[in-house]
Amino acid sequence: MNSQQLIAYPQGTTEPLIYPTGEIILDMYKDAPIPLVLVADDFTNTSDRAGGYSKSFDIPGTKKNNIFFNHIYTINSDSTFNIHIKTAIILKDGFINVFAGYLQLNTINDNIDGISYNITIYDNTVNLKSALSERVFRDLDMSELTHNYDAANIEDSWTTGLPLITPLAANSFAGNTGATTTTVVKYPMVQWNNNASYTSSTITSNNLEDFFKPFVNLKYVLQNILRDVGYTVDFNFTTPAQFDNLFLDFNKGWGVGVFIVQNTGDVNYPSSLTTYDGNIIENEIGIDGSLYYDLTTDTYTSLGTSSVTFTGRFVVKSSSGGGTIVANVRSVATGGSVYTQSYFNVAAGSTLNFNVQINYMTVGLGFYVTFQAINAFVMDKSSLLRISVSPSIHYIQDTLIGYKGDTNQWEFVKDIINMFNLVIVPIENRINHVSILPYNDWVDTGNQLDYTNKIDLNDLEYKPLDGLAKTTFFKFTEDDGDYITEAHNHPNDWRYSQTVIQDIELFDNPENTVELSHIAATYYGAAYNGNVFIPKIMNSEFNNDWENKFRVLYDNGVTTLGSGTIEVNNLFGGGYVFNSYLRFSTKQDGVSGISYNYGIVSYDYSYPWINSLYNTFWFKYMDELYNPETRIITVKAYLTAKDIYEIKFNDIIMIKNRNFRVIKITYNNSGLSELELITIKYL
Question: What is the average per-residue pLDDT within 656-663?
């Protein structure tokens, strides 16, 4: 008799409810156990990790099951069961929860034999990949990090914390509830262009943006990515600083943001004074126009000291016999006009153009556009008001409007997995909670289990690993036009890659590549006559508007200048002198520090940094994979529900004094299960 129970929860359930207020034990076919498959790792596919799942199986269309799926089998029904929303499940065997995850409804069969549902159940890690694959960085909400962009706040970000415009709400990853500063946004010194100069011990630049653009803590970014799809996470690194001090650059690639205000239809304007009517905002360049422009009142409000340009292109679709139309840009505070343009003998088809810049708008200052005409007229829907803003307030959210906002969230998370050879481990019996840690930290922390008496020793199959490659390349993505491709192409490949050639003559693939999709390598070295050691993120043309790919750098803290100063003449008045700078790098300080490049690189014109990404996080994995003694053994085993509940994929399975690690379990609760085990060099 099948002792399994498949318990399903209503869609949208965040915490399992206690029956009968929500959960349902789905009916299954008699004596048809669920063919559960649990997978640890493909081992030869280093860039994609699998998770637990079941094979597809059918459950009957009983009254109970039909009610749970809300009669979705009826074509003309208005079923509330959504096949695109995850459905939480727990698989019990007797009194033991052997699997927690989600249900996917694949097909509904309605034929002469009755109704049946074909479903698959899968675990948290499989669901995580699926959920993030549908999201991009633009879906993240980082508006809580809004702050004034000025020299004092930049320096505060190095130590005491960056002052925020709005106190942090509850459950923020940026700090405690109500905090008015945060340490998750920092402004290190980076050479972004070639505008600065060095003379007489002074590094001089006219704009803060030449040196200081925001970096956001990598852990903060990942926590928000996972929370938005309903996950909580523990980052269980043995050495927390390897992760906690890493930051992701949020350079948006422009100094001026542009958005357009339009109306989706033609608009009738009477002859009396009337405010320009827009009902949609289109973000054109790196700015969220809805933060500045109110479509209800059609007014623009300055959020910080800035200069703003209003550009009008208004097309008159029809008018009553022509006449004069006067356009004004008016102050909200006074109603007075700061710009007036008169258009005479306006006929249908005419275009009214104007361009006006208002310099140094202060916080709260507002403007709107009006029209007054001799005769009523109709404005064509192609008309637009384009607003260009040079803000002094920094919205991290604005960065997500451009290239970085298009970044697929799963592809980015996979990049981080591939940098640090991470493992994502579901936490037992906690739906949507995972632990993320490096393979090296995970692999040797399991228990030793003696399975000698559980194995059918008369049915053993040994085989070598499939899919091994002769050569494996580890590298970052290329950032087109990066200055380091031309100026610093030695002694290593500019991507600071690692090429691993195995001493094997028989292999399945000549090459395998672990390549990041959205994170590029960063050059780090001396600058400005050797007075500073800083990252250089700039293209060959030294363009200020270069929108570079993501960079990951390590926070080595504040460095005091031995002599000289860094002087910046802020665009909005007053100079600022820095006697120190925040130094981010592609490595940790100290001879034992980690380099965040795959290959061995010489930094600061000193010795090569041996503790590279490959040597630190990948070497052991690859050494195990290609060891001559590494092989797969397939065995039949008598496993109970308690075994499935207790086993972890980093446990060591002992069979007759030989140690193995599990890579796949095909569980059968009514007979022999199948185990795929792997021999590992260091067991």
Answer: 85
Name beta bridge partners: 91. Answer: 6, 99
> In 3-state terms, what secondary structure has residue 266?
coil
Dist CA 475 CA 493 (whole Å) = 10
DSSP codes of every residue in 77-110:
------TTS-EEEEEEETTEEEEEEEEEEEEEEE
Report whether 147 contacts 397 (CB < 8 A): no
pLDDT digits (tens, 9 = 90+) for 525-545: 889 988 899 999 988 888 777
Contact 137, 412 (CB under 8 A): yes
The answer, yes or no, to whether residue 46 has pLDDT greater than 50, is: no
- Beta bridge partners, 92, equal 5, 97
CB neighbour class for 447 (10 Å; exposed up to 12, middle 13-18, buried from 19)? exposed
Distance of CA 618 to the CA centre of its chain: 23
Q: Residue 678, SS3?
A: strand
d(CA 193, CA 205): 11
Kindly state the helix (H) or strand (E) to which residue 387 belongs, with its residue range: strand 384-390
DSSP string over 327-374: EEEEETTT--EEEEEEE-S--TT-EEEEEEEEEEEPTT-EEEEEEEES
* pLDDT of 213 over the 60 cut: yes
Give the span between the Cα atoms of 244 and 446, in whole angstroms.
25
CA separation for the pair 308, 287 (Å, rounded): 13
Residue type, 619: F
Both structure tokens of 2: 């099948």
Q: Report angle CA 414, 417, 421 to the nearest 5 degrees.
A: 145
For residue 152 the two structure tokens come to: 């004092």
Q: Are 22 and 10 contacting, i.e. CB atoms less than 8 angstroms apart? A: yes
Start-to-end Cα distance in the chain: 39
Nearest to 285 by CA among 217, 386, 382, 371: 386
| DSSP alpha helix (H) spans, 197-252 | 218-228, 241-244
Angle at 645 between CA 118 and CA 101, to 5 degrees: 40
Cβ-contact 335, 370 below 8 angstroms = no
Residue 408 contacts residue 400 (beta carbons within 8 Å): no
φ, ψ of residue 396 in degrees (nearest 5)? -55, -30
Give the integer Cα–Cα distance in Å for 132 and 229: 7
- Return the amino acid letter for 361: M
pLDDT of residue 135: 93
CA–CA dist 31, 157 (Å, integer) = 63
Cα–Cα distance for residue pair 564/528, rounded to 1 Å? 11
Residues 502-523 have pLDDT tens digits of 877 766 678 888 899 999 999 8
- Contact between 471 and 499 under an 8 Å Cβ cutoff? The reply is yes
Q: Tell me, what amino acid is at 137?
A: F
Kindly list the distances between the CA atom of residue 42 and the CA atoms of 282, 618, 676, in Å, as whole numbers in the listed order: 45, 15, 11
Contacts of 295 (CB under 8 A, 6+ apart): 261, 278, 279, 280, 281
Alpha helices (H) in 576-639, listed in sequence order: 613, 619-625
**pTM of the predicted protein model:** 0.79
User: Cα torsion at 182, 183, 184, 185 (round to 10°)?
Assistant: 90
Q: Is the pLDDT of residue 263 over 90?
A: yes
Q: Residues 6 or more apart from 525 whose CB is under 8 A from it?
A: 488, 533, 536, 603, 604, 605
